[in-house]
Amino acid sequence: MLDTLVFVTVLLPFLVAAVLLVLREQNLRKVILVATAGVLILSSLAMLRGGAFIMSPAPLWGSLVTLGDFLILAVVLLVGLKRKNQIIVWLTVAQIVGLIWFDFFMVKDHGATPAFFADDLSLVMVLVVSIVGSLIAVYGIGYMKEHEEHLHLTTSKQPQFFFFIVLFLGAMNGLVLANNMLWMYFFWECTTLCSFMLIGHDDTEIARKNAERALWMNVLGGTAFLFGVMLLYKVTGTLSLQEILARGPEFAVAGGAILVPMFLLVFAGMTKAAQAPFQSWLTGAMVAPTPVSALLHSSTMVKAGVYIIVRLAPIYAGTYFSNFVALFGAFVFLATACLAAGQSNGKKILAYSTISNLALIIACAGINTPAAITAAILLILFHAISKALMFLCVGAIEQKIGSRDIEDMRGLFARMPRTALVAVIGILTMTLPPFGMLMAKWMAIESAHGQFLLMIMLALGSGVTVLFWCRWAGLMLATPFAKAAPEAQDGTIRGPLYLLAGLAVVLSFFSPLVYNGLVAPVVAMYYKTAPYVLRYGNFESATGVFLVYPLFILLGLGFFFALRQTRKITAAQAVGPYMCGEQTSVDGKPGFLGPLGQNVTAVSGNYYLEQFFGEAMLSKWINVIALAVLVIMLFGGAL
Amino acid sequence: MLGNLINQGRIKSPWVVHFDCGSCNGCDIEVLACLTPLYDIERFGILNIGNPKHADVLLVTGTVNQRNKHVLKNIYDQMPTPKAVIAIGACGCSGGVFREAYNVVGGVDKVIPVDVYVPGCPARPEAIIDGVVAALEKVKKLLGMTA
Amino acid sequence: MTKILLAVLALVAAPILGALITGVDRRITAWLQSRYGPPILQPLYDVLKLLGKQPMLVNTWQALCAYVYLVGAALSVVLLFTGSDLLLIFFVLTVGAVFLVMGALASPSPYSQIGGQRELLQMLAYEPLLILVFASIAMVTGSFKVSSVFELSRPMLYDLPLMFIVLGYALTIKLRKSPFDISASAHAHQELVRGVYTEYSGPYLAMIEIAHWYEVILVLGICALFWSTSFVGMIVLVALTYLAEILVDNVTARLTWRVMLKSAVGMGLVLTVVNMLWLYAQ
Ligand code: SF4
């Protein structure tokens, strides 16, 4: 049973991907994709029921993985040579040499290490990848159809597109389930390659450029990962993640030797999670079709980065290095939130907010208390859902109105009521209690309690976060009174939107169950203490209390009552907006009656606070500071 | 009970919005004089609000002309009921000295229903305050409250 | 059981108290301007009148937002009175504030749009300050729970004098008092019509006014925490603070949002850091 489940979640996507690559039949592709999504979701749920496990497949697979490693490196090397990118070439060469040395000369007991292991953290990740990722893949069906019609392609590039999308899901599942660090390295490189291919999918000048940037940054991370694994092996004498975790405290006590490989692995995680100074690859990645951005930002790729950091957290708990990780995370959280506040491009806002949230997760891993790790895991879960939802909304909106600028989304509710509503729900689940994201943020801030520098940055950061989300939600609602007709939309687009929105709300409602069932066991396993006591579903600890159900019930009742009251409002009570008594309206757009009776359309825009949050100026400083913190982290914390 | 309280509130809190229709500014200055410490209309709960949507009483100074009559109408329409209109000064009441001008429509009552007329050129602040009080008396009668 | 009683008490008493405080505020302000001023109950009359007016809306979102703003504000006061978590109270307060802004932005009128944007900037200025104040309270008590403040043996003001000033900053912004009455003024000062309130009218404006009373009680309640050891001390501290607010309101002119943002964040950070160093040194 277990074999089948691992097979389905990891290998099946690879096989399906191969089928999709040669398949040119539209409808069949649709059926296969939806079926795969269903199978993935079910098997991830079944896996969750099964609980923790260890598994070693036949040795043949080990050799295949080694072969795959070299295959991927060769492809990357070729790309580097073709694009004449020195960084990619040399880093890849270093990796090839390192890997040969490591594989054939250093590691003796190849077959001895079990390839897969899972605890609740891995299972949560599998859930996120399989459910959110699959929904995005389904959304891709409808999206890509329109996308290609829009581009007037003669031959569809969809086979290639879905090949990499589905491959990506398999690789991610493999990554989070891997026990053998070499296997993890293989899947790690898989995701790098997939993201490169997907970012460059549209094959425009800018897509190629951004894909290349993503590649070199991630190859840098990959190199750090490989050498981190090598050093780790030297220090601990094993490749088994589970063993390293189990013996973690003992290594940490033994002194700093373990911290150098830890630094390298955490650094690799940071490049993958697009933390400053590497944030540009993720913001550049938005040139790709929206499903790709959604996938990169929510369930795959960047989550692999934070997964490794959170995964290894127990090993470096209580060290200076950990403090620096927290400091780095908090800084990037604040800095990228500011960058997001200065943007009007919807996808860019989402990109920076992703980086900001990932940084918060990293900060939690750095704070490294049971409560903080709980916050990190819940953030991974809830962020994946809400962020995927937001990206899919922006994608659907962009296809309809031809712009991703939030200024153009003014009054969107009048044109796309359903999508606008879903987007507003997405924003609310991102920013307000009692939803899961906010609960996790509450945990994060309370666990930073006592570390004042961290606290200051988290406080400023969360203030800025509210700013850019709130105005986005508000301006979509600026509509006249009349009820708009619901927009037409493909089922494969609408389905995932509704499912994700429902998931974001329902899962928040059951957050005590999620905590009890999924998070508390992992935390207890590695930290020996439970961070929260649940009484009537309320999170309680020595430092504070979060009332889940009272809030849900009271706010819910208030909201419900408000909705009922607003239902009663009739069109007779509607008036135009206040415009000094000079209001007119042309095509539903409000304006002033100007001189000679002409209509002057009223135009308003958000404050983007260029002087504080200007991207060009701010990015420079952020990169310098982030780099400095990284260097200090290496020399002050790890060595 | 609540209805009674609300009526109490209606009498005790008339918020006014002042609209300068086409005044020579003489009456405007007198309206603003009511806000000064000497007259202090806030004593009666009267506030000068800049927004018809929040106001209960519309004070109009000056004549209505062809150019601004739709503005007057719009502002009146954007005030939620119950509401009252007070025309101030000779111009507001009837068009005053500008009555015969080619583009003048006339007094405020040519466009919207007026409840109280405050004469004068310009109207004195006392007269304006008295006008608001007279409007309140009218409201009282309308609400069936005896003073 | 006592908690439920407290909650009900907070729900009922807070707006009445808030109204009275606002009434006294208007009276004192009038006195400072050598006027006679309205009756103390004036704010109640205003709201009663507004409740009786005809509902008038640009779209239904505004009504929804007004209701949720009220619910959020009331809930945060209830949480404070039942001794809940400070950070949680803050987040619930944000719910209300966010919906107020969303309602303002939901109207295409430029006045309410700018009001909404400015309200966001005000939130940007006071939210970090409040979190910092709460964090430093937690430093002293060891917990974010309000109830743990009452277990202290001496008033917090001794340990966190500078944080009280930071709170005062946030208070001025939250009470919509000059020099920070940027998005809308508590008094009938006219600036961009009525800023963030422009498009709310009649009963919806009344709801927002009531929500504002709740918020007044909430911030004053947080002030009171700084002298948690005696009831009289609380009252005196709150009264003095509020008087200082009124004085500041009357002697300062409105500043621009840039100055507000820079000074609030700058001052807040410096004072926090100094206060924390002092706390460590002790
Ligand atoms: S009534 Fe007299 S003072 Fe008033 S607007 Fe007319 S001309 Fe001016």
The major pleated sheet of chain B works out as: 5 strands, parallel
Global mean pLDDT of chain B: 86
The strand count of chain B comes to 7
Q: What is the count of helical runs of chain B?
A: 5
Percent range for β-strand residues of chain C: under 5%
Which outline of chain C best applies? globular
Rounded to an integer, what's the Rg of chain C over CA atoms? Answer: 18 Å
| Largest interface, counted by CB within 8 Å of the partner chain's CB | A-C, 64 and 68 residues
SS class of chain C: mainly alpha
Query: So, CATH architecture of chain B?
Result: 3-Layer(aba) Sandwich
- What series of H and E elements makes up the topology of chain C? HHHHHHHHHH
Domain unit count of chain B: 1
Bound ligands, named by name, code or SMILES:
iron/sulfur cluster
Low-confidence stretches of chain C: none
Described by the principal axes of the CA atoms, the overall outline of chain B is globular
Q: Uncertain spans of chain B, ≥5 residues at pLDDT below 50? A: none
Helix percent band of chain C: over 70%
Helix content of chain B: 25-40%
Oligomer: heterotrimer
Number of helices of chain C: 10
Lateral strand order in the biggest sheet of chain B: 2-1-3-5-7
Brief overview:
The complex is a heterotrimer of chains A (639), B (147) and C (282). With 639 residues, chain A is mainly alpha-helical.
Top keywords for this entry?
heterotrimer, B: 147 residues, alpha/beta, Rossmann fold, two-stranded antiparallel sheet, 36% helix, globular, C: 282 residues, mainly alpha, 10 helices, binds iron/sulfur cluster, ND/Mrp_TM (chain A), NADH:ubiquinone oxidoreductase subunit 5 (Chain L)/multisubunit Na+/H+ antiporter, MnhA subunit (chain A), Proton_antipo_N (chain A)
Description:
The complex is a heterotrimer of chains A (639), B (147) and C (282). Chain A is mainly alpha-helical. Chain A has helices spanning 2-22, 26-50, 59-83, 86-106, 120-151, 158-177, 181-199, 205-236, 241-246, 248-254, 259-272, 280-284, 290-299, 302-312, 320-341, 346-367, 370-401, 417-431, 436-447, 452-476, 491-509, 511-527, 548-567, 610-613, 615-638; strands at residues 53-55, 116-118, 533-535, 538-540, 545-546, 583-586, 589-593, 599-601. The model of chain B has no long low-confidence stretch (mean pLDDT 86). Chain C is an all-alpha fold. Helix content of chain C is 72%, strand content 0%. Chain C has helices at 2-32, 42-51, 60-81, 86-105, 110-141, 146-149, 161-174, 202-224, 231-251, 257-281. The longest helix of chain C is centred in the middle third of the chain and has 32 residues, at 110-141. The interface between A and B is small, with 8 and 12 residues. Bound molecules: iron/sulfur cluster (SF4).
